[in-house]
Amino acid sequence: MPRESAAGKARRLLALLGTLERDAEFDLAELAGSLGVHPSTLADDLSLLSMCGVAPYAPGDLVPVYTEDGAVHVFGSIPALDRTVRLTAEESRALATALQLAGRTATDPLVVRLLEATSETDAAEVERVIRAASATDPGISATLARGAASGACVRIAYRTAGSEEETERVIEPYSLFNERGAWYAESYCRLADGPRTFRLDRVREAELLEERSVGRGLAPAGTAVPSGALPVARIRLAPGTAVPERDWPGVRVVAGGGEGEATEVEVAFAGTAWLARQVLSYLGDAEVLAPEELRDAVRGLAVRERERPDTTTT
Amino acid sequence: MPDPAERIINLAMFLADTRTPVTAERIRLEVEGYGSDQDEAAFLRMFERDKDDLRAAGLVVDSTADGRYLLDASRSFCSEVPLSAEDELALRAVGAALLDDPAFPFPAELRRAIHKLTGVVAPPAPVAVRVADEEPDVQGATVAELASASARRKRVTYDYTNAAGASRPHEVEPLGLFLRDGRWYLVGRDVSIDEVRVYAVSRMAALSVHAARPKTPDFEVPDGFDVGSFIGLPFQYGATPAFEATIRFAPGRAWSAPALTGGRGTLAEAPDGGLLWRITARDERAVLRWALAHGPGIDIVAPARLVTALAGGLERAEAAHA
Predict the structure, then answer these.
(1) How far is A46 from A42, CA to CA, in rounded Å?
(2) How far is B159 from chain A (nearest CA, A)?
(3) Residues B247, B267: one domain?
(4) Higher confidence at residue B215 or residue B314?
(5) With an 8 Å Cβ cutoff, is B94 touching chain A?
(6) CB contact under 8 A, B13 and A101
């Protein structure tokens, strides 16, 4: 393991100093976890800090801290540096990038407030060089996160992929996850009367309810890739058509695919409407071989799309 | 020998405790850790390194015209940030989850930032983040290195395998990075062809940052550079001439337009409450695919040849499934 630099250690100690409040007590393991170090490393840090201070380095001039029985005790006030040090450019960049992933861009009020108060970095400057934005409305994800954290039910207006209609559902969210930039909420759906995963950029509205969720003991799967007992479709792609690995999660080639050859793939699917629309988007270059219901769905969708008044030339 | 970090903290505390500018000599005498038996040149070298370390930690040490030093408190400490319970939850949730995601390139920096802001990084609810699915640990580490090189404006070299499977070395000025659909991309000027190109980080190998003159930038960032302008929709890539497409969001789908369009093109209200989106495109087939895949309620309006092509494609799909 590479030896830690003095600068790196000093950065952690300065972050730690900002946490230590006069006459406070902290859990050693929790504080160590927050700083990302082993409790023994934190104990060493605190021992070192207890020897730091200002001249003449009398007992009252040193950082009044000690550890005992898994607890951190502060037994006075910090002699200097008792305020939180501003974020460095690298810390600001990390924070702004993380908030982008949560759907909060440079103009988001929270981002503006945070960076103005804590750093000399402008979030817009960060965005000009690093972009990791998520399309999810931060208000929607915040409501779902609160529901998951507090065990409250959430009413959502949701449009299933490929579906014409929006449904209103009461759900009991228990986990949020981000996969490839998209946010999902794993929930018990009272409308479907079973566990469902909702993609948050398909949620138009979310309202936190006072009603509590029922403890159902559901374990987060943490993935949007369908698995288990889902139906599997077999689809033939015309020669030269790339396998849509990014758009059809879990797709696998089962036959063909050579130069000038058609490719046959299999893909598990949870929603017929979604896969029918995906196949249709290939405009004849993708053909469902099985199951028959999916073939029918693609054909029916093609007819409906052709009959839509909006597809006429203007 | 005392831990150098102890000396650096002592220096920080001394400067924070001293309201008026002080000389280096006084620092040497009053800050524990600087040896009194040290020669002047060695002390000054050590003091300069320590000041650099303090600056790197967020403390701004100014020097006066007469060579004295002062901590700029207004630029060194956070102002009060009133965080609502919801704000704090949002910060802790995404922060804690990203710390476990190997594809997130700045975990240590994020951890310190959240610790400074909230004092705790523990996740408030089960949240998981996997922003990249192809070798996330490799992508995360590579992006961290590229971001550092970009911030210091140092050139990088790497072997790059293109979509056709051909590999060759590239020397690039790293200008920016973006994440899209589970992949990190570098935008940089390829020195050998003098063009700004987009490179998938997962296709890079043997990355190295120019080590010569580490504190001197190798290049200037072009005025007005914005990495966002390189993030296109799937139909905006290709060598074919650009054209303008108009796509209509039905009234019931208008709410989803900001997320789907990603701020590109122009959105205008239609008389029926829907939206008309005018967007530059290059790949006609990809435009049709995009509109159909994101439907219903998202329809191509113009150019007329696309509407005609769509009708023909729908007929082919119907015939294939007859």
Answers:
(1) 6
(2) 22
(3) yes
(4) B314
(5) yes
(6) no
Domain that holds residue A26: 6-74
Q: What does the pLDDT average to over B12-30?
A: 92
Residues B222 and B267 in one domain: no
CA distances from B117 to A314, B4, B91, B107, B230 (A): 54, 26, 9, 15, 33
Residues A129, B129: C-beta atoms closer than 8 Å: no
B260 touches chain A (CB under 8 A): yes
**pLDDT tens track for B87-104:** 777 777 777 778 888 899
Q: CA–CA separation, A212 vs B172, rounded Å? A: 55
Q: Would residue A175 count as lying in a domain? A: yes
Return d(Cα B67, Cα A128) in angstroms, integer. Answer: 37
pLDDT at A313 over 60: no
- For residue B70, the enclosing domain spans 4-76
**What does the DSSP 8-state code read for residue B242?**
P
Please state the domain count of chain A: 4
pTM of the model: 0.84
Residue B8 domain-assigned (yes or no): yes
Contact status of A273 with chain B (Cβ, < 8 Å): no
Final residue belonging to a domain, choices B230, B248, B274: B230
Q: If contacts are CB pairs under 8 Å, which of residues 117-136 in chain B contact chain A?
A: 117, 119-122, 124-133
DSSP A48-113: HHTT-B-TT--GGGB--EEEETTEEEE-S--SS--SPBPPPHHHHHHHHHHHHHTT--TTSHHHHH
Interface pTM (ipTM) of the complex?
0.85
